[in-house]
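dumping this here so i dont lose it
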């Protein structure tokens, strides 16, 4: 079930979420290509019957998430002016432009070449409101209504962003590299 969060972020279609005022990490120049060390195919580490056919393919131009059981997945997410890929310290960041802000997810390649994929979201068992309250102790949160939809935006420094990852505000998903 948790892998549907991956699909949601890649489709840029979440209901309540935290977004960013600008691409993350702030001030880092976007990469023109995805580094070759990340290229390859990955499957969810905790494959269940529900997600056993999900495959994440990373190329120099972007990302492709496939699932033969679900025709609604995007074919590809290619790097562009509205899809930026950046690097900071041991993390890569995929930034997706929405109407008024940016969604960002973090990737970290493990020593065995597997991926850890991280999304800023509430943990299972917590409400979004509890998550907002806890997060507000770490970074300022602005809220804005736009076209009848509420947006919650943060503008962390690069150090604050890494602190949020290290303090477990990002939910982590594991992907195993297919040999």
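and the seq i came up w/
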């Amino acid at each position: 079930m948790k892998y549907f969060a991956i699909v949601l972020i890649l489709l840029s279609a979440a209901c309540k979420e935290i977004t960013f005022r600008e691409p993350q990490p702030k001030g880092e120049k976007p990469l023109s290509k995805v580094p070759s060390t990340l290229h390859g195919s990955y499957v969810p580490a905790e494959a269940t019957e529900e997600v056993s056919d999900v495959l994440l393919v990373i190329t120099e131009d972007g990302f492709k998430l496939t699932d033969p059981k679900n025709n609604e997945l995007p074919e590809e997410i290619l790097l562009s002016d509205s899809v930026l890929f950046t690097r900071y310290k041991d993390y890569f960041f995929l930034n997706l432009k929405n109407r008024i802000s940016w969604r960002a997810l973090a990737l970290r390649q493990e020593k065995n070449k597997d991926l850890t994929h991280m999304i800023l979201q509430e943990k299972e068992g917590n409400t979004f409101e509890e998550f907002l309250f806890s997060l507000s102790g770490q970074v300022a949160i602005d809220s804005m209504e736009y076209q009848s939809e509420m947006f919650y935006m943060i503008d962390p420094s690069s150090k604050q962003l890494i602190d949020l990852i290290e303090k477990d505000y990002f939910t982590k998903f594991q992907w195993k590299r297919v040999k």
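Residues 3-35+79-172 form one domain.
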